Amino acid sequence: MSPVARRPRVVAGNWKMHKTGAEGAALAHELVALLGARPPCAVIVCPPFPALEAVRAALQGSAIGLGAQNLHAEPRGAFTGEVSGPMLAAAGCRYVIVGHSERRHGMGEDDALVARKLRAARRDGLTPIVCAGETLSERDQGLTADVLVRQIRAAYEGLSPAEAQETLIAYEPVWAIGTGRVATPEQARDAHRIIRATLERVVGPGGGAAACVLYGGSVNAENAPRLFAEPEIDGALVGGASLEAASFFRIVAAAAAVV
Ligand code: PGA
To answer: What is the CATH number for 99?
Structure first.
Protein backbone atom coordinates (compact mmCIF):
# COMPACT_ATOMS: atom_id res chain seq x y z
CA MET A 1 0.00 0.00 0.00
CA SER A 2 1.43 3.38 -0.95
CA PRO A 3 1.68 5.84 1.93
CA VAL A 4 -1.11 8.42 2.00
CA ALA A 5 0.22 11.98 1.76
CA ARG A 6 -0.49 13.87 4.95
CA ARG A 7 -2.98 16.65 4.64
CA PRO A 8 -1.64 20.08 5.60
CA ARG A 9 -2.44 21.43 9.04
CA VAL A 10 -4.14 24.79 9.10
CA VAL A 11 -5.13 27.11 11.94
CA ALA A 12 -7.28 30.08 10.96
CA GLY A 13 -8.41 32.90 13.23
CA ASN A 14 -11.85 34.40 12.60
CA TRP A 15 -11.77 37.76 14.34
CA LYS A 16 -15.46 38.40 13.57
CA MET A 17 -16.50 41.99 14.38
CA HIS A 18 -13.48 42.66 16.60
CA LYS A 19 -10.35 44.80 16.15
CA THR A 20 -9.89 48.17 14.50
CA GLY A 21 -7.02 48.57 12.07
CA ALA A 22 -4.67 49.67 14.84
CA GLU A 23 -5.75 46.88 17.17
CA GLY A 24 -5.52 44.32 14.38
CA ALA A 25 -2.03 45.47 13.41
CA ALA A 26 -0.92 45.21 17.04
CA LEU A 27 -2.21 41.63 17.26
CA ALA A 28 -0.61 40.75 13.91
CA HIS A 29 2.74 42.14 15.09
CA GLU A 30 2.50 40.02 18.24
CA LEU A 31 1.73 36.91 16.18
CA VAL A 32 4.67 37.53 13.87
CA ALA A 33 6.92 37.96 16.92
CA LEU A 34 5.67 34.68 18.42
CA LEU A 35 5.52 32.59 15.26
CA GLY A 36 8.45 34.01 13.31
CA ALA A 37 8.53 34.39 9.55
CA ARG A 38 7.84 30.65 9.07
CA PRO A 39 5.05 29.37 11.32
CA PRO A 40 5.18 25.63 12.12
CA CYS A 41 1.95 25.03 10.17
CA ALA A 42 -0.27 27.11 7.89
CA VAL A 43 -1.70 30.06 9.83
CA ILE A 44 -4.40 32.43 8.57
CA VAL A 45 -6.01 35.46 10.19
CA CYS A 46 -9.36 36.86 9.04
CA PRO A 47 -9.84 40.43 10.30
CA PRO A 48 -12.89 42.58 9.56
CA PHE A 49 -12.74 44.48 6.24
CA PRO A 50 -11.57 47.88 7.58
CA ALA A 51 -8.61 46.25 9.36
CA LEU A 52 -7.37 44.26 6.33
CA GLU A 53 -4.92 46.85 5.07
CA ALA A 54 -3.31 47.51 8.46
CA VAL A 55 -3.05 43.79 9.20
CA ARG A 56 -1.63 43.09 5.73
CA ALA A 57 1.10 45.64 6.36
CA ALA A 58 1.84 44.17 9.79
CA LEU A 59 2.13 40.65 8.32
CA GLN A 60 4.49 41.72 5.55
CA GLY A 61 7.42 39.34 5.28
CA SER A 62 5.74 36.62 7.35
CA ALA A 63 4.05 33.49 5.99
CA ILE A 64 0.86 34.15 7.98
CA GLY A 65 -1.95 34.30 5.43
CA LEU A 66 -4.58 37.01 5.27
CA GLY A 67 -8.26 36.16 4.82
CA ALA A 68 -11.59 37.95 4.82
CA GLN A 69 -14.78 36.85 6.53
CA ASN A 70 -17.21 37.21 3.62
CA LEU A 71 -17.50 38.32 0.00
CA HIS A 72 -20.23 39.19 -2.47
CA ALA A 73 -20.81 36.70 -5.27
CA GLU A 74 -20.56 39.37 -7.98
CA PRO A 75 -17.20 40.90 -8.84
CA ARG A 76 -18.59 44.48 -8.96
CA GLY A 77 -21.83 46.40 -9.19
CA ALA A 78 -24.50 48.35 -7.38
CA PHE A 79 -24.44 46.42 -4.10
CA THR A 80 -24.30 49.01 -1.34
CA GLY A 81 -22.28 47.90 1.64
CA GLU A 82 -20.87 44.79 -0.02
CA VAL A 83 -17.26 43.81 -0.79
CA SER A 84 -16.15 41.75 -3.80
CA GLY A 85 -13.54 39.07 -4.31
CA PRO A 86 -11.34 41.20 -6.58
CA MET A 87 -11.31 43.92 -3.89
CA LEU A 88 -10.23 41.38 -1.28
CA ALA A 89 -7.53 39.95 -3.53
CA ALA A 90 -6.25 43.49 -4.21
CA ALA A 91 -6.21 44.10 -0.45
CA GLY A 92 -3.83 41.17 -0.04
CA CYS A 93 -6.28 38.42 0.93
CA ARG A 94 -5.60 34.85 -0.12
CA TYR A 95 -8.52 33.32 1.75
CA VAL A 96 -12.15 34.09 2.46
CA ILE A 97 -14.62 32.45 4.85
CA VAL A 98 -17.80 31.35 3.07
CA GLY A 99 -21.04 30.19 4.65
CA HIS A 100 -20.20 30.85 8.28
CA SER A 101 -23.20 29.97 10.43
CA GLU A 102 -23.42 33.55 11.67
CA ARG A 103 -24.14 34.46 8.06
CA ARG A 104 -26.28 31.43 7.26
CA HIS A 105 -28.46 31.86 10.33
CA GLY A 106 -28.01 35.56 11.14
CA MET A 107 -27.99 37.01 7.63
CA GLY A 108 -30.21 34.56 5.79
CA GLU A 109 -27.53 33.07 3.53
CA ASP A 110 -28.86 29.85 2.03
CA ASP A 111 -27.07 26.88 0.46
CA ALA A 112 -27.44 28.33 -3.05
CA LEU A 113 -25.82 31.62 -2.07
CA VAL A 114 -22.98 29.81 -0.28
CA ALA A 115 -22.39 27.80 -3.48
CA ARG A 116 -22.22 31.01 -5.52
CA LYS A 117 -19.80 32.58 -3.05
CA LEU A 118 -17.56 29.51 -3.13
CA ARG A 119 -17.37 29.81 -6.93
CA ALA A 120 -16.87 33.58 -6.74
CA ALA A 121 -13.93 33.11 -4.37
CA ARG A 122 -12.32 30.62 -6.75
CA ARG A 123 -12.97 32.86 -9.74
CA ASP A 124 -11.29 35.74 -7.94
CA GLY A 125 -8.23 33.75 -6.91
CA LEU A 126 -9.15 33.31 -3.25
CA THR A 127 -9.14 30.04 -1.31
CA PRO A 128 -12.59 29.65 0.24
CA ILE A 129 -12.92 28.36 3.80
CA VAL A 130 -16.33 26.72 3.48
CA CYS A 131 -18.24 26.32 6.76
CA ALA A 132 -20.85 23.67 7.43
CA GLY A 133 -22.55 22.55 10.61
CA GLU A 134 -25.78 21.64 12.32
CA THR A 135 -27.76 23.55 14.93
CA LEU A 136 -28.45 22.04 18.35
CA SER A 137 -32.04 21.25 17.46
CA GLU A 138 -30.92 19.53 14.25
CA ARG A 139 -28.44 17.44 16.27
CA ASP A 140 -31.08 16.61 18.87
CA GLN A 141 -33.42 15.45 16.11
CA GLY A 142 -30.70 13.19 14.66
CA LEU A 143 -30.36 15.37 11.57
CA THR A 144 -26.62 16.12 11.76
CA ALA A 145 -25.70 13.90 8.81
CA ASP A 146 -28.61 15.17 6.71
CA VAL A 147 -27.59 18.79 7.27
CA LEU A 148 -23.91 18.17 6.52
CA VAL A 149 -24.69 16.16 3.37
CA ARG A 150 -27.08 18.86 2.16
CA GLN A 151 -24.69 21.75 2.83
CA ILE A 152 -21.64 20.05 1.34
CA ARG A 153 -23.53 18.74 -1.67
CA ALA A 154 -25.00 22.16 -2.45
CA ALA A 155 -21.63 23.87 -2.12
CA TYR A 156 -19.47 21.36 -4.03
CA GLU A 157 -21.75 19.97 -6.75
CA GLY A 158 -19.97 20.36 -10.09
CA LEU A 159 -16.43 20.75 -8.71
CA SER A 160 -13.71 18.24 -9.54
CA PRO A 161 -11.68 16.50 -6.81
CA ALA A 162 -8.72 18.78 -7.65
CA GLU A 163 -10.90 21.90 -7.38
CA ALA A 164 -12.33 20.74 -4.07
CA GLN A 165 -8.80 20.22 -2.80
CA GLU A 166 -8.11 23.89 -3.46
CA THR A 167 -10.64 24.80 -0.77
CA LEU A 168 -10.65 24.45 3.00
CA ILE A 169 -13.68 23.14 4.87
CA ALA A 170 -14.61 23.98 8.45
CA TYR A 171 -16.98 21.75 10.37
CA GLU A 172 -18.58 24.17 12.78
CA PRO A 173 -21.45 22.83 14.85
CA VAL A 174 -23.58 25.90 15.53
CA TRP A 175 -24.13 24.86 19.16
CA ALA A 176 -20.37 24.95 19.79
CA ILE A 177 -19.69 28.41 18.36
CA GLY A 178 -18.99 30.99 21.02
CA THR A 179 -20.66 28.84 23.67
CA GLY A 180 -17.67 27.28 25.39
CA ARG A 181 -19.26 23.92 24.58
CA VAL A 182 -16.67 22.31 22.33
CA ALA A 183 -17.53 19.19 20.33
CA THR A 184 -15.80 16.06 21.56
CA PRO A 185 -13.04 14.74 19.27
CA GLU A 186 -15.37 11.81 18.53
CA GLN A 187 -18.26 14.08 17.53
CA ALA A 188 -15.92 16.09 15.29
CA ARG A 189 -14.39 12.89 13.86
CA ASP A 190 -17.82 11.52 12.92
CA ALA A 191 -18.85 14.79 11.29
CA HIS A 192 -15.57 15.04 9.38
CA ARG A 193 -16.10 11.49 8.10
CA ILE A 194 -19.58 12.42 6.87
CA ILE A 195 -18.14 15.48 5.12
CA ARG A 196 -15.40 13.43 3.44
CA ALA A 197 -17.78 10.67 2.39
CA THR A 198 -20.14 13.27 0.92
CA LEU A 199 -17.31 14.94 -0.99
CA GLU A 200 -16.20 11.57 -2.29
CA ARG A 201 -19.69 11.08 -3.76
CA VAL A 202 -20.22 14.66 -4.95
CA VAL A 203 -16.86 15.59 -6.51
CA GLY A 204 -15.56 12.10 -7.19
CA PRO A 205 -13.02 9.59 -5.91
CA GLY A 206 -10.18 11.08 -3.91
CA GLY A 207 -12.06 14.31 -3.20
CA GLY A 208 -12.88 13.33 0.36
CA ALA A 209 -9.58 11.83 1.45
CA ALA A 210 -7.63 14.84 0.17
CA ALA A 211 -9.90 17.52 1.67
CA CYS A 212 -8.48 19.62 4.47
CA VAL A 213 -11.24 19.71 7.10
CA LEU A 214 -10.89 22.01 10.10
CA TYR A 215 -12.95 21.93 13.27
CA GLY A 216 -14.43 25.15 14.65
CA GLY A 217 -16.45 25.94 17.75
CA SER A 218 -15.01 26.95 21.14
CA VAL A 219 -11.49 25.78 20.30
CA ASN A 220 -9.02 27.08 22.90
CA ALA A 221 -5.47 26.40 24.02
CA GLU A 222 -6.65 23.80 26.56
CA ASN A 223 -8.87 21.66 24.32
CA ALA A 224 -6.85 22.03 21.09
CA PRO A 225 -4.33 19.20 21.77
CA ARG A 226 -7.13 16.66 22.31
CA LEU A 227 -8.89 17.76 19.12
CA PHE A 228 -5.71 17.69 17.04
CA ALA A 229 -4.86 14.20 18.27
CA GLU A 230 -7.82 13.01 16.19
CA PRO A 231 -6.44 12.25 12.70
CA GLU A 232 -9.66 13.34 10.99
CA ILE A 233 -9.13 16.90 12.28
CA ASP A 234 -6.72 18.83 10.06
CA GLY A 235 -6.74 22.07 12.00
CA ALA A 236 -9.07 24.65 13.47
CA LEU A 237 -11.12 27.72 12.70
CA VAL A 238 -10.84 29.72 15.90
CA GLY A 239 -13.03 32.62 16.98
CA GLY A 240 -12.71 33.97 20.51
CA ALA A 241 -9.32 32.39 21.25
CA SER A 242 -7.82 34.00 18.12
CA LEU A 243 -8.26 37.49 19.54
CA GLU A 244 -5.25 37.18 21.83
CA ALA A 245 -1.81 36.34 20.50
CA ALA A 246 -0.87 34.03 23.39
CA SER A 247 -3.90 31.74 23.13
CA PHE A 248 -3.83 31.66 19.32
CA PHE A 249 -0.12 30.85 19.40
CA ARG A 250 -0.72 27.92 21.75
CA ILE A 251 -3.38 26.54 19.39
CA VAL A 252 -0.97 26.84 16.44
CA ALA A 253 1.72 25.11 18.48
CA ALA A 254 -0.69 22.29 19.36
CA ALA A 255 -1.60 21.82 15.69
CA ALA A 256 2.05 21.71 14.66
CA ALA A 257 2.98 19.26 17.42
CA VAL A 258 0.95 16.45 15.88
CA VAL A 259 2.18 16.83 12.30
P1 PGA B 1 -15.48 30.39 18.57
O2 PGA B 1 -15.91 30.73 17.05
O3 PGA B 1 -14.10 29.80 18.51
O4 PGA B 1 -15.52 31.73 19.28
O5 PGA B 1 -16.49 29.42 19.08
C6 PGA B 1 -15.56 29.88 15.99
C7 PGA B 1 -16.12 30.40 14.70
O8 PGA B 1 -17.23 30.93 14.70
O9 PGA B 1 -15.46 30.32 13.64
So the answer is: 3.20.20.70
Cα–Cα distance, 129 to 237 (Å, whole number): 9
Does residue 245 belong to any structural domain of this protein?
no
Residues having CB closer than 6 A to ligand 1 are 14, 172, 177-178, 216-219, 237-241
Q: Cβ(33)–Cβ(73) under 8 Å?
A: no
Candidates 151, 172, 179; CA nearest to 233 is 172
Domains contained in the chain, number: 1
Catalytic residues: 100, 172
Nearest CA to ligand 1 atom 6: 239
pLDDT > 70 in the chain, percent: 98
The beta-strand segments (E) located in 58-126 are 65-68, 95-98
Alpha carbons 126 and 146: distance in angstroms, whole number: 28
Residues 39-43 have a mean pLDDT of 94
Domain residues for the domain of 197 are 70-215+227-234
Counting atoms of ligand 1 from 1, which one is nearest the CA of 97? 9
In a domain, 147, yes or no: yes
What digits encode the pLDDT tens for the residues 85-141?
999 999 999 999 999 999 999 999 999 999 999 999 999 999 999 999 999 999 999
pLDDT of residue 5: 60
Check whether 163 has a pLDDT greater than 50. Answer: yes
Q: Is residue 240 part of a domain?
A: no
Asked, for residue 10, whether it belongs to a domain, the answer is no
Tell me the best of 46, 102, 219 to mutate to test the pocket of ligand 1, counting ligand atoms within 8 Å of each CB and taking the most: 219
